[in-house]
């Protein structure tokens, strides 16, 4: 029913438009504040609850449509209750779970262990033909470069997040991207 030359004014974010995620996030932030959660200005997507003394009693981290929260005390519990009333939270886990590709495990002594072992185990190595392997000093092809970049990207995430022992290797490979040879693929 809109004339072909007509304009439509959107009064709120439209799904699929580039500004929709930001508008959704701003709406989420406003809702969380109404529920008694305070946004941390220096860390986007991080929110806290505080007691009457101003001490932090809980924390909520939001990434896209995933959230992770932890805390204790009446202020934290009340904020959680209010958030659950307003959001359709389909899955809630505790003890051991996966969050954004990281396995999170809380032990009985309250230590928290985070690893990406399952993620790393699913990184597929590149196949390099045996005849190509013998040409170790040859520059890589454009198809090999695409695979090389993809593999480095997959390795960079755990190197940055939970496996610092990979950091040097990943950095070294990243620096060779422009001049990569078959030996670098290997």
Can you characterise this structure?
The protein has helices spanning 20-34, 74-86, 117-121, 130-133, 142-161, 167-175, 182-185, and strands spanning 38-39, 46-50, 56-63, 66-71, 96-99, 102-106, 112-115. The chain is an alpha+beta fold. The strands form 2 sheets. The protein has a 4-stranded antiparallel beta sheet with strand order 1-2-3-4, covered by helices on one side. A 3-stranded antiparallel beta sheet has the order 5-6-7. Helix 5 packs antiparallel against helix 6. The radius of gyration is 23 Å and the shape is flat. It starts with 19 loop residues before the first helix and ends with a helix. The model has no long low-confidence stretch (mean pLDDT 88).
Count, helices: 7
- Range of strand content: 15-25%
Instruction: Name the strands of the widest sheet in spatial order.
Output: 1-2-3-4
Radius of gyration: 23 Å
In sequence order, what are the helices and strands, one letter per element? HEEEEHEEEHHHHH
Structural class of the secondary structure composition? Answer: alpha+beta
Main beta-sheet annotation? 4 strands, antiparallel
Give the averaged pLDDT, no decimals.
Answer: 88
Shape: flat
Low-confidence stretches: none
Task: Give a count of the beta strands, DSSP E runs of length 2 or more.
Answer: 7
**What level of helicity do the residues show?**
25-40%
């Amino acid at each position: 029913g809109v004339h072909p030359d007509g304009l439509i004014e959107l009064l709120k974010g439209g799904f699929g438009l580039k500004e929709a995620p930001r508008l959704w996030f701003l709406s989420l932030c406003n809702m969380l504040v109404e529920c008694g959660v305070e946004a941390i200005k220096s860390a986007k997507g991080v929110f806290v609850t505080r007691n009457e003394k101003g001490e932090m009693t809980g924390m909520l981290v939001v990434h896209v449509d995933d959230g992770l929260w932890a805390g204790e005390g009446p202020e934290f519990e009340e904020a959680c209750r209010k958030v659950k009333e307003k959001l359709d939270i389909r899955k809630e886990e505790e003890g051991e779970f996966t969050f954004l590709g990281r396995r999170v495990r809380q032990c009985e002594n309250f230590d928290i262990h985070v690893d990406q072992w399952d993620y790393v185990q699913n990184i597929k190595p590149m196949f390099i033909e045996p005849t190509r392997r013998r040409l170790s000093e040859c520059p890589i092809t454009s198809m090999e470069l695409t695979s090389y970049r993809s593999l480095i990207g997959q390795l960079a995430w755990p190197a940055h997040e939970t496996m610092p022992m990979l950091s040097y290797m990943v950095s070294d490979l990243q620096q060779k991207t422009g001049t990569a040879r078959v030996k670098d693929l290997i």
